[in-house]
């Protein structure tokens, strides 16, 4: 199609979600339990995990169960959780926030960040291969995955540990700048020569119209152009971020071929997860109609606050160090066992095909207090969900508001489809003044 392929903007793999982080235990009716089980289907990143943990009271415990249809997404979630759990003795909170956002939303990263990523991948490889029945760390539990899935995770982590000059399975490495530009060209087609106007249109007429005025024009254009969303330090961002590379199969004459490249979102932006909402109203102030702070500023403040809340649940308090001293610490000694252990918190990754099998297992009968579906996984929401949902369960479904390539009619149609699918699964809308057009919230039908 000469004008480009609009449907390609969101990509075919979900590296980040199309909605802000939510405390899933406060999304819906108030519940009085102290031990919660939450199922996440296709969330794409750990934003909801971190946000939900931050909302817990001291006596409450939380078990998150995660299903993704791609081991590449599972590998990246494990990496991001690993970074989030690094103790401040190894990495100060400021630096940890910067590194996390850099890995989270940048196609290219600094050499120091690449080194941190490689060391994390090495530890995750050991965790996946050496752990058989008991998880080394409760927040990085992969023991329920199939052996072939764990083998796939090991393969992915080993790719990440290789120097960027040989980080591809092919003879020639994947150059992220080339991979990113290919996607932009495919998406815009004949509009590529006026791409800056296209970027500005998507920002002002779509994102800003949807209430994302904090997304700065310069930062958004830089991300659309290069895949660089978070540039917080005076450093050189030119090492490929291997956690954003994946394989995609294309049909060709004579068969199919797999290509490694960047196949994620190139339109909506990673700012949606942490950068467009905040309880700190000072970050939303405007002057002469312009936001003083940017989505990058808000992302930093939000993620830093989430990391501080993780530290408050740390099981074994240790002597605190200043961020400056912590940044000088030797990170080679940080193993899975050195990561923060959070009181009452566990995250377990389930096999990619397990959603249909959970209702067959007695353990999961009326088990989950909250079930979350991303927009890309709504087709998997079926009547069997009632069998694994607790009597007072809440079903939260991500809507298509921030999938920019969809028209207003398509976004509205998607919301109607979600309501219809939920009704077939015997869930009814939960109506409350807190309801929004970003997530649809349902509760089990009362019989």
TrEMBL record:
Keyword Cytoplasm belongs to the record: yes
Residue ranges of every copy of the DUF4470 domain listed in the record: 15-109
Swiss-Prot/TrEMBL keywords: Cilium biogenesis/degradation, Cytoplasm
Organism of provenance: Zoarces viviparus (Viviparous eelpout)
Matching Pfam families: DUF4470, DUF4471
This protein's name: Dynein axonemal assembly factor 3
Keyword NADP: no
Entry's Gene Ontology cellular component terms: dynein axonemal particle
InterPro entries: DNAAF3 (IPR039304), DNAAF3_C (IPR028235), DUF4470 (IPR027974)
Functional note: Required for the assembly of axonemal inner and outer dynein arms. Involved in preassembly of dyneins into complexes before their transport into cilia.
